[in-house]
Amino acid sequence: MRQHKLALCKEHYLEWIPEQTARFIKKYWMFGPDEKVLVAVSGGKDSLSLWDILQRLGYQADGLYIGLGIDEGIGYSAESQRLTVKFAEEHGLKLHIVDVQKEYGHSIPVLSNMSLRGHGRPCSVCGLAKRHEMNRIAYELGYDVLATGHNLDDEAAVLFGNTISWSKEYLLRQKPVLQGHDGLARKAKPLCRFYEKEMTAYAMLRGIEYIYEECPFSVGSTSIYYKELLNQLENERPGAKLNFYLKFLEAREDGLFASDPEKDPPPLFLCPTCGQPTMYEGQCSFCRMMEKANQK
Ligand code: Q46
Ligand code: ZN
User: Is any ligand 1 atom within 6 A of the Cβ of residue 127?
Assistant: First the structure.
């Protein structure tokens, strides 16, 4: 790990990753040892590794898999669900499965083809549906916190995108942990300081079987382009990616932004259809999308 000027053998690497994760969980006040954690698992290396690390650290961590109905000739959702179920069974872990199509009548590709949002790209519809379902399940089943497997490459790419467009609203919300309020679950990203490569190494050394294919809809996405740019920078200057992210976190702690919605949260309304909190009065974006879909 050039960025840390550190080289470890397998045995020590597999100890170092959970130790560091425990340190980040504590440092950013993500959750305590007695809290109930819901891990959003997709069948990929990051989320399965996160689940593995949390159970090794002794947390009460259950999984949530959201079936998106993405096939695209490679059976992407079916395979990622199979690997997630396999992991849960092998480790004796509790897994909740929610299928968007069974729950709401339409899969993500079908919703996307209805051109309801996202200009024909499924990620906007998919992201909205995933956020809605993660919050709903965490809330309905009484979990204290929702943990996702975002790694440093994900976080740095989002930060880069939001910085070049100076999207203040999104920059304000980019944190290792977002406190919950008014029906919004607390969200934590315990892997946010690990490089993607580090997580791949962890998953492989632990023998975790994960889906190698990326979601077919991620091809050509802006976030992949930003990741490539940041990797070029990292190759020239080891540690640049980590520095970019950590210096941003420091700057925001030092008052980069005058207002902080966490300290002074905006008033929220309740969606009359699903009861979840929304930024605006009336139905939430998810229920509006579903209503339009059902009218088609
Ligand atoms: S699963 Fe969904 Fe991602 Fe696929 S459709 Fe886009 S958002 S790329 S993390
Ligand atoms: Zn709603």
Answer: yes
Q: Specify the ligand 1 atom closest to the Cα of 218.
A: 8
Tell me which residues have their CB within 5 A of the ion that is ligand 2.
Answer: 271, 273-274, 284, 287
Tokens found for residue 154? 């994900």
For tokens 């809605």, the residue is: 132
Q: Which amino acid, 106?
A: H
Is the full-model pTM beyond 0.90? yes
pLDDT tens-digit series, residues 199-252:
999 999 999 999 999 999 998 899 999 999 999 999 999 999 999 999 999 998
Site to substitute for ligand 1 among 79, 196, 218, 222, most atoms within 8 A of C-beta: 218
Residue 30 one-letter amino acid: M
Q: 257, 172 in Cβ contact below 8 A?
A: yes
Structural domains in the chain, CATH included, are 10-294 (3.40.50.620)
CA–CA separation, 66 and 133 (whole Å): 8
CA gap 32, 48 in Å, rounded:
21
Residue with tokens 């420091």: 250
DSSP secondary structure, 245-272, as one string: HHHHHHHHHTTSSS--TTTSPPP-EE-T
